[in-house]
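fyi for ur records
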Amino acid sequence: MNETPLRRRRLLFLALVAAFVFSACRPDDTLDITPSPTPTPEPSATPSPTPPPADFVDPYDVNLGIMERLIALLPDPLPAGEEEWKRNFDEGNDGVKNIRGIRKPAVGREIYYYTQQGSKMSLNFAVFEDEEGAIAEFARKQELRSSLVNLAEDDAFRKPNLLGAGLYGSFALFQIDNYFVEVLVEIFTTSTSPLTPLSTEAIKFFENSRAAFEASSRSAAMDDG
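which gave:
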């Protein structure tokens, strides 16, 4: 009968000892566990862009000079076919408009012409840094114009070329080295299409004047440098 109370007292004693040990091992509630802030590295100075060499010539400026001189040399009036074509300075910016899709350093311009009888057309020129750019533009315009007319190569002109006519106008596309040339006849009032004679005159002008507008551009670039 006396063993049970004794056993209970022993168990109570052991429980008190365990509670004391546990409270002694528990960490202090006031221990600061806030992490130390990570130091922010000081920003490094952004290096200045390397300036171009003293003799650097911007290819866009070269192409722009070529285009401006080319336009200045364009014949006005331009006899072709049954009509005489005159510059139309009421269209675009003083008769000239930028060609969509031509990006720097390439330069592309559309130059407008008309006749007294009401015909309308434009000569489109684009100059690129290299031949690959002109080839790509030829392919781009071929895709665009093929949705309007059936284009075909004409053996009477230098290659590559594509000519076509339809309800939406007449088009002649040419790629010459790093140049793209297009003749676009919007409306004609004559009995036959002026596309072939206009293309003949446009290519003749380009070939006869190329040395002049390229030499003029090179000279201006050297003077600026």
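The chain has a mean pLDDT of 85. thats all i got for now
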